[in-house]
Structure formats: structure tokens, C-alpha cells
Amino acid sequence: MYAFALLGDGAERAVERLAAAVEGRVGVVRVGDTATDGGVTAGYGGTEYVVDERWRATGDGLSVSDALDRLAPDHDYAAVLGDDETGLPTIAVGDGVEDAVFEADDARSFDTGAAIEAIHETEPHETLESLVAEVKRSQSADYAGAIATFTGRVRAKEDTADDRTHYLEFEKYEGVAERRMDTIETELEERDGILNVRLHHRTGRIPDGEDIVFVVVLAGHRREAFRAVEDGIDRLKDEVPLFKKEVTDDETFWVHERET
Fold this sequence. Notes:
single chain; 260 residues; alpha/beta; Aldehyde Oxidoreductase, domain 3; 4-stranded antiparallel β-sheet; 15 strands
């Protein structure tokens, strides 16, 4: 699922135009004063979750991240309106927004085609649940008797005497990392009994306790599924150009510089 923030006076009209132009299901997360009777209202005490008027739930304290995680398994896009603190790629409609991946002066001049291209250049928002949902939709799912997964997370400490790791920050070799993961997925899927494989590694700053990397394998039987998961994470770590910075209580360092 591609997730992005839409900011500016023309954001409401722009998200309507984007939703009409893209192929797939679009979720909207509305924050604070942008909250209406639709989408997901997040971040201000009482919250409401609405999807296509068919399913509704209420609760307290739903964050923007929580809302995106709920949308990810069955949506192709999610737009966040009214919150410029998400760290998401930003679509700006109007003045006063910095570092936007796409900008328009107003909703009238908003080029939906160019905006969609810019969104597709960003990193998708994936969760373990969204990747499992994706492989379940595979054309080969009728032949599957197993789904095996691996989730890697940020470890705060490896030993009680260690300094606490506050966060990891990942950078990737743009283009090369994606192609390498695609190759690993394809080669694992060529094995007997392996029906579908999905790899995903987050980039940017990831605090301790949060998930970093996922491997999901759809297979005919459990044994080949488990082997493919183990080989998938091993190959991802060995072959995909990702660079990790670690920030602890006392120091900040690039991990690959310590290993050489």
C-alpha cells in the first residue's frame, strides 16, 4: 500500500481526484480538524474507522500509524489529511509545505497523473498482515497448505550490560536493492512447492521494538515453506545493499564500518 500525506488548502479536492484516477482501493486518514464522516479519524481521543460505509468501529487513541496498519492489508493507497508530523512522503496543494515529492499551486492545477507517478516512486507501507493478505490473493493459493513468515525487529539490548539501542536508521542503494529483492523472490519461487514469496525491508529511522523486515512464503507444505523463509532472510541480509546506522545511549555508528 502506498501511503502519503496530502497537505494544503486544496488537499480535500486533490484526494477526491486521486481516488477517482487510481486503480485500486483508497483509504483516507483524517486528523484533527479535517475529521468528517468518512475515512479513518486518528489522533484526537475518540476515533472512528469507516471503510466504504460497510464496516465501522469506534475506539480511543487510534494513531496515524495504527490507522495505516489497519488499512494496509486491503487497500492499495492511503492518504493522510491534516497531519504534517507523519514523516510520510508529502503531496502539497498550495504554499508553505517543504520537501514535498509533488507540488501543485492549487486543486485546479493538480496533475493527478504526475502525482500518481511521484507516489509510485516512494516506498510502500507494508506490514506482516498486508504481505500475508497479498500472498493469500495469489492465483496459486488453492494449492497452498502453508504460510510461513519471519519478522525482524529492532532489539534494544542483546545483553543486560549493553548500552540501549534507541533506533536503527536504514538507507538503501536505490534501484539496486529493489531489483535484488525481486531476484531473490523469483529464485525462491522457482523451487518445487514454493508458490509465492514476498520480501520487504523498511528504510529510514526505526525505533527499538518496531519491525524492520518481513519474509512471507506461500507453499504447498510446511517444510519447504520454513526452508524458503530461512533462505530468504539469509539472502536478503547477505545480498541486498542496505546500510544500517545504530544509535545507542553513548554512540552513533554505521554497522558496516564496524564489521570491516
